[in-house]
Amino acid sequence: MADPRMRSVEKRVEASHNWEEVASSPAFRRLIEEKKRFLVPAVVFFLVYYFLLPSFAGWAKSLMAVKVSGAINFGYVFALSQFVMVWGLAWLYVRKANQFDRMAEKVAQEVRGGGE
């Protein structure tokens, strides 16, 4: 069964709007710029942090073997920190996505207001 929210979105998309006008509106451009400003650094950070683990495992074995506490070494700590990093990024994204949703709603209101 289709999600009722999706049906609502589909109805809004079906409405005829001048999409070129929407894409060139200042509010829409601001939304896209804000998303880029957050997503590009977040993705770059994620990829660098993620690929450091296999890179360190292959090329910095002595660093990964440094004992932190008892049998726990830096490699284990760094590997587990990946989970913390992903949870942190997810939390940040949810906060930013809520802002993006509010901005998108303003764009939609402008489009609806301009079409009346």
Main attributes of the structure:
single chain; 116 residues; mainly alpha; two-stranded antiparallel ribbon; 5 helices; 2 strands; 84% helix
Characterization of this structure:
- By secondary structure, the chain is mainly alpha-helical.
- It has one domain (26-114).
- The chain has 5 helices and 2 strands; from the N terminus they run ααααββα.
- It has a two-stranded antiparallel ribbon with strand order 1-2.
- A hairpin with a 2-residue loop joins β1 and β2 (72-73).
- The chain starts with a helix and ends with a helix.
- The mean pLDDT is 89.
Could you write a compact summary of the structure shown?
With about 120 residues, this protein is mostly helical.
